[in-house]
Amino acid sequence: MKSKVYENASEALHDIKSGCTIMSGGFGLCGIAENSINYLATCDLKDLTIISNNIGNSGRGLVKLLKKDMIKKAYCSYVGGNPDLEQRIFNKEIDVELVPQGTFSERIRAAGMGIRAFYTPTGHGTLVAEGKEVKEFDRPCILETALHADFAIIKAQKGDSFGNLWFKETARNFSPLMAMAAKTTIVEVEELVELGELQAEDIHLPGIFVQRIYQGEDYENAIEFKKTREE
């Protein structure tokens, strides 16, 4: 079997091309694939479709792609704290579909489960429902379709050579769902361990959903660690 382990982000993300749809794990800046995003920001890419909770925040994360005009369309739940995205929305330089967060996660989960679409009352009677089919159950519901991607870029705290993953607390967020919904899942880990080092009961995502994995480095995202005083 071909090894899933890659040397670095450059090798693991070598075939991402312009026009691809990319899911990016993370909630705010918690759990984002820093190394993968930083590498993509150095590439000559355009017309990307990004599926991510908030397309970066405070000038960090996916904002690096946004500032280089790489992103054509985005599906997200939250645009607060992201003045770069806000400005592009006002200037009509990007197509953004704002999706209620529960619906956002369910659309991703549905793709991984092979569910084409589902009905939900969330968003009925609002701008979210415009152009969508409405069906009466116990109350009106709108039809939402599954969200798929060519690639998912996610980060885990630990992973082994088969791609079994362990996430640190809430840094898990949308990442396991995205791994199941993409054609190719690329994972960076803070600690790459040998197969068998992770106990079965500790595995949050089995490696069957991971195609590539590599050891990340130089992480700057202190938001994932609770601090009560300066070091």
Account of the protein in words:
The chain is an alpha/beta fold and 231 residues long. It has a domain at 20-98 and 148-217: Glutaconate Coenzyme A-transferase (3-Layer(aba) Sandwich). 19% of the residues lie in helices and 27% in strands. Strands 1, 2, 3, 4, 5, 9, 10, 11 and 12 form a 9-stranded mixed beta sheet that branches. Strands 6-8-7 form a 3-stranded antiparallel beta sheet. A hairpin with a 4-residue loop joins strand 9 (149-160) and strand 10 (165-166). Helix 5 packs across helix 6. The longest helix has 13 residues, at 101-113.
Quick structural overview:
With 231 residues, the protein is α/β, with parallel strands linked by helices. It has helices at residues 9-12, 34-40, 63-66, 83-90, 101-113, 175-181; strands at residues 5-6, 21-24, 48-51, 71-76, 95-98, 117-120, 134-136, 140-145, 149-160, 165-166, 182-193, 212-215. It has a domain at 20-98 and 148-217: Glutaconate Coenzyme A-transferase (3-Layer(aba) Sandwich).
CATH superfamily of the domain at 20-98 and 148-217: Glutaconate Coenzyme A-transferase
Cα-based radius of gyration, to the nearest Å: 18 Å
CATH architecture of the domain at 20-98 and 148-217: 3-Layer(aba) Sandwich
Basic shape: globular
- Give me the CATH fold name of the domain at 20-98 and 148-217: Glutaconate Coenzyme A-transferase
Mean pLDDT: 93
* Number of β-strand runs: 12
**Derived structural class:** alpha/beta
